[in-house]
Structure prediction request, 594 residues.
Amino acid sequence: MNNSKAEIPRKRRFWQRDGFIGYMFILPSLIGFAAFVAYPLIVAIFYSFTEWDGLSPARFIGFENYTYMFTTDPSFPKAIKATFLYVLMTVPLTLVFGLLLAVMLNKNMFSVKVLRTLFYLPVVLPSVAALVLWKFVYDPDYGLINQLLAIFGIKGPKWLQSEDTALVSMAIVSIWGVGSMMIIFLSGLQSISAELYEAADVDGANGLQKFFKITIPMMSPVLFLQLITGLITAFQAFNPPQLLTNYGGVGGGPNYSTYLLAYSIYDKAFNGFKYGYAMAQVMVLFIIIMIFTAIVFRFSNAYVYYENND
Amino acid sequence: MSVLQSKKRRTFIGNLIRGIILWILSLAMILPLLWMITAALKSNSSIMSIPPEWIPKEFHWENFPEGLAAVSFWPRFVNTVFISAMCVIGQVLSCSVVGYGLARIRFAGRKFWFYLFVGSMMLPSMVGLIPVYRLWTALNALNTYWPLILPAFLGSPFYTFLIRQFLMGVPRSFDEAAKIDGAGHVRILFQIIMPIIKPAIITIVIMQFQASWNEYLSPLIYLIDGEKWTLSLAVASYSTLYAVEWNKFMATDLVYMLPTLILFFVAQKYFMQGLGSLTTAGLK
Prediction:
């Protein structure tokens, strides 16, 4: 602090100055950052190297959690496999469907507002409510899908209760929530200048050309952001394995088929009281998400088009 | 036929085909919901009947009171409303204050903190799960509402970002006039800025209410006693039973969804335009 008293006579004390008041205003977020970001990150890294049941003091064991995870724990490879498959099935499909729906609904036509509302409706429902509804929809005997199939004389699979179909069934539920992508893409589409399309019309471009040469490049920043948030969310999906494939209080599906990493972390910590080991899995999940985000960012330089680079 | 006419005809047919496809798709999407409503009105035996009764022969309204009683709905409804209301108040207050500070007050490091808060949104929330849980355990706050409510008073980075971005578009002349009249930052924020940023605040109220009403993982790990449970826990634990009476359960689930559905239809404008454009606002 330089001595400003000599230059301007001030009556304000330091706590009346903006330099101090500013910090008072952002204090809630500073505390929040310290308590929910900085502290957990450091603690999680540290405890991932310990054996800790939450009662007795944590014992430092070096890389043992990690070696156990990658060499011995039978559930971990299944968790990784399920997680990657789930992300691969849900993220690209919701992006593509969301964009296609948005393009189709970005027209002035009869009943377009009702249609937008209907597609968005599943997103509004509480996650728990929607998931338990789907558990009923998938019920092998009384569920909607198998009853529909029964009309055509087809005996439907056991969906969530079978190892082969559980994960796919779960991914379909996630795609049901495509409305959240659609709504963001719609507002993105509405901000594309109509002049671009008019100019393309003058040049005789067809619908597909307009889609790939105007819509996609102009939407690329939104697509990019939605890809990143979609990945981060899908990698951490917890409610679906916990609720859809939960029978008698145990989630994760038949033979760990829907044992997503986020659920595994919860399971190891809160059912198994292996906090140290769970935090090692948190670190693995964290690193996976970071790698994917970095890859997407790396490619974004080449493919994402920003209108004004300031 | 002129070129213009044939083009018009093409657009008409195109729109018709598009409309039909979209209507079929959208009806398929809400089919589970419609089916849920009919299931909630069926008797337990007609739920199991094959071929299915698409429209119940007789309406079993008693599914609603019986289902609600089975999950002790109303006490848990009160709990959920209380937690949601506190979280909404907390987010609106803290995010307005922080957002104002970041947008309007000049202090050393404000850019740095802004980017740090925004960047912290990228941190996967699973990382905090166990450390924060252990922190609340150490503070003896397990089985209380503190872990669910207090964080809302510490400003979510996303809502703070929304308010800050909104304020960057509000001309400074509004607050400058008040400043000349001798108003401090607190008065400027609450008397002048808050009314201006009302659209952003309404958006936050809606999003946070939805988030709190839907929140499942936090109540699951923090609330132990059944009487402290939220509706999400009650509905979820009902669903994990082996033998579920689906008709009563769907009735309960329907009532649990109702507040969010009502909010959606009342505040549709904010959902369909506001939320989308605000989420992409940061890119422009």
Summary: Chain A has one domain: 80-303. The CA atoms of residues 198 and 204 of chain A lie 10 Å apart.
